[in-house]
Here is the input.
Amino acid sequence: MSETDPVVRVRGLTKSYGRGKVLRGLDLDVHKGETLAVLGPNGAGKTTTVEILEAHRGRDGGQVEVLGTDPASADRAWRARIGIVTQHASDLTDMTVAETVGHFAGYYPHPRDPGDVIESVGLTAQRKQRIGRLSGGQRRRVDVALGIIGRPELLFLDEPTTGFDPEARRQFWDLVRGLAAEGTTILLTTHYLDEAEALADRVAVIADGKVAAIGTTAELRASAGDEVDVAWAGGHERTERPTALISRLSDEHGGEVPGLTVTRPSLEDVYLSMIGAKGTTS
Amino acid sequence: MTMPGTLRIGLSRGRFEMVEFFRDKGAVIFTFSFPALLMLMLGGIYDEPSGGDVKLSQVFAASIAASAVVSTSFVNLGGRIAADRDDGSLKRLRGTPMPVAAYFIGKTVQVLLISLAELVLMLGLAMALYDLALPNTVVQWGRLLGFFVLGVICWSLLGIAASSLSRSAKTSAVATLVPYTLLGFVSGVYIVPMGLPPVMEQIGALFPLKWLAQGFRSALLPDSMAAYEAAGTWESGRVALVLGLWAVAGLVLCLTTFRWRDERTR
Here is the structure.
């Protein structure tokens, strides 16, 4: 694999459950060292896509390469190069943080130092506590510690901050930024646009089993066009030339325009119009 | 890139699982006390002489020691694997370079040690309360150790297979406890073999609990007691054969039904 090859390369991926088509020809590249956020409504195929990339699930059709290997023929050496943080794990409740991280380190050929990993996820004070007695946010940090103990080149984070309070989310974001800064390629699925905006170099929107849009948050926002909303006490107008409109309004009102606001569409507006237009629910 | 050895990871998992087991107080108490309580109940009810110097309570004690091993292998292992599938353990492990064999080595270590502890506990109880004697010949020791190991292997494999039948950890208790309890009745564990109607006795003879209990009786009771068995002898060769065949069947079931996760869910 050369430097310029993508870490993840997906072409025409399809997958059905029974008669329901979940993935309908999905294409996706993740570049080395980037953090890519995958957004999409429930049932759009986010988790299915990620689980195929992780070798947790088989696929029906299409080509998939992760770290230069087809996950369908994944071996131990390949699994040692990826890290996975899944949703909903509730295991290991009777073991302590230090016992668990130390034990998992033994699975990998070149693990990080367990103490360093526990430190980096901010659990040093809890290292001798049983995992079942940690808070939800701390438990998630254990999941991340186990995901990165093997020094992965590619880290999967599946909706990592669901259920976090705002402060725990901020701390978690700092942790993810730190991993990205060390050169880890990160594929993150999330429901939160602010999370994608805070962490991701690029965002892919999955809708109806395909990638509906992919790019930086600025690019996605730009795809909505240059129209902005101008509103004032007497009405509102959507326009590509807000300055001309305001100048005209100012003349009409003889100076100050009462209640004037100028609003660019938020990323959320763009996202909702993107998935709304596709009309996916399942 | 050299990967850590499978045996090393497997033994490390065995240690990890032992710690995990002993910290789960509910599981420890249930696994160890249920067969012990059964022995106390049945031994207390049936205290009359059975044949010669042997008391009926000693016959029960030997049989229940066998069923206790089924509890620590079949019931315990089936439940733990179903729980591993349910709580995300198996999925987490599948996402690491831990080899599949290491997972099963870990389980084997856990089941063997817990079953051995259970056997010692049951024999200790029976010696203290019912004057059961430990084997006093090499042949009897051989039977005890041989049938113990064969029984643990056979019932562990069946426990792994049973864990795949159940959809969740909650229903796995049904897939293991129901056959375990029902077989106890038809296999000469809760009722002495000679007290069973022929049909029940024949049903029991199809399954490996009857044979394990018979094997344990052959190791722990005087040879004169063989006269009270259904066949009138200990049938040691047949005990080994039936347990071996069920072990093979269990292995085939494991290989064909074992799932890392419940594929029926999305």
Residues 3-265 of chain B form one domain. Chain B has one domain: 3-265. Strands of chain B lie at 49-51, 54-55.
